[in-house]
Amino acid sequence: QMASREQVYAKLGITAEAAQLLETELGTLHLAQCGLENRLWDKSKCLEATRTLQKIDESTLGQLLRKVREKSEVSTNLETELREGLRERNRLCHSFYRDHGTRMQTDEGRDLMIADLDEMHQKLFRAYQLAGAMSSLAVGFVLELKAKDA
Questions:
Q1: What is d(CA 25, CA 10) in angstroms, rounded to the nearest whole number?
Q2: Phi, psi (5° rounding) for residue 121?
Q3: How far apart are CA 89 and CA 97, in angstroms?
Q4: Full-model pTM
Q5: H-type helices in 1-150, by residue range?
Q6: CA distance 45 to 9
Q7: Contact yes or no for 33/73 (Cβ under 8 A)
Q8: pLDDT per position as a tens digit, 28-80
C-alpha cells in the first residue's frame, strides 16, 4: 500500500519531535555545564541562572551544539553524530518540501518522502539519545555537587 498525504504529514511530525527532543537535551546539557561551572544551584545565583536559561531558550540548535562543544571535550564520533542531527533538523525545517518538489502528488513520490523521513528520524533520534546520555551524566554531576554543598 502506498503512503498517503496524512502518513507523510504524520511522519514529518514524528521526525520534528525527534529534532525538538535533541534540542531539549542539548539545552539541558548546556544548562548543566553552566551550572557546574558557576554553581548555579546556589540561591544567590538565581538571577544568573534565570539569564542563563533565557539565553539557552533563545539559542538555535547550532548555537547550542557550539556552546556544548566549547565547554566540554566531545569525541569525534559523538560530534559527527550530533552534527548529523543538526544537518537533518535543518534540512527537515528548511528544505524538505522544496527538495521533494512535487513528489507529494504521486504515490511513488510519497513513498520516497516517507523513506527520506524514516532516515532523517533515525539520525535525529540517534543524536537525541546521545545528547540525552550526556545531559543525564551532567545533571547527575550537578545534583552530586549540589548535595555536597548542602
A1: 23
A2: -60, -45
A3: 13
A4: 0.92
A5: 5-38, 46-58, 61-71, 76-94, 96-100, 107-149
A6: 44
A7: no
A8: 999 999 999 999 999 999 999 999 999 999 999 999 999 999 998 888 899 99
